[in-house]
Write a structure and sequence with these properties.
Distance between the termini: 195 Å
Strand content: 15-25%
Oligomer: single chain
Shape: elongated
Structural class: alpha+beta
Largest sheet: 10 strands, mixed
Number of strands: 14
Amino acid sequence: MNNDIAVLSSMPAYIQAAAAQAAAANQAMSAGISVGFSRISLKASRFRIVQGDTETVLDTTTLPAVLLSANQGVSKAFYVKAWNPGDAEAPDCSSSDGITPDFGVPAPQATACASCPMNQWGSKITPAGKQIKACADTKKLAIVASSAIGGELYLLSVPAASLKPLAQYINMLSQRGVPAHMVETAISFDTTADYPRLLFNVARFLTQAEMEQATERLTDPMIPTIVGAVTRPAPLAAPTMQPIPDYVAQAAAQAKAQAEAQAAQAQLAAQQAAQAQLAAQQAAQAQQAAQAQQAAPVGFGAPQPASAPVGFGAPQPAAPQSNVVTAAFGTQTAPKPIAPAGGEIMPPPSVPGDALAAAVMGALDQFDD
């Protein structure tokens, strides 16, 4: 490696001129290949440098660093089992950008982080009874030691409890127009907290040479890999519309006019059909009403047949025939047949008319005497 550096330090001028144009080719060849990098652990509220399987505890409670870059999103990590600082197991589900789970995670909990039940407040209860999220939030920073700005890059994952102090620190720098990579940041632990909680403070401004060196490190191709930046495809641009030829415009106008005329005809036909249907319904209702009036019972609205009382102008019905005999001095009833002792009905004795008249005349003569 040292020999490689020695050779590259004497780069010919013609290669230097073409190197800028060839940088993209190198980046394409290394894209997608995981390259190991060092990270800073916060286990037991102590700064530790982890390089592969080697862990070195720093003998300091304050880390002088230069903050170069960060993941644009908030990264997330979820462990099914209880996770303890220092555990080497990878999370069961994780997201580098806090939008969707990373490709290849063992147990994705949802298709999107926003709707994931493990990303909701109250999905986990701490031993102290506080509601938190089961999926932990972290902010991934790429930093260098302020004493070795051109040296190794490190990953610092800022835990959820330290996100607010970090945001307050960056906002303070922004309000004063100072980029974070132009100052030395003193990173320390909050000694009043029961868990690892980081604090951020300005230690000093960088010298001009240090600032220029830090500015150059901003374009280091390793930074996106360290912070887990996810490159998403840009949204498709809207297609450019070509001018419409005149003949196409004319044909379109004719087609539109024809369609409007057909629609108007169809609407008129529908209105006429509706009117005809309404007229038929009204005629049927009128016919039903007439039939109902003819069939109405007598005395309930329908005209009653003319019927004059008997003896008041109308001819009286003939009385039934009986055995009544009309005489000169009144009406007498003809004697009924008398049944003899034997039970057989005998007809009344017949009296000749002349004998009857003579008997009457004789009776009258006796009154005269």
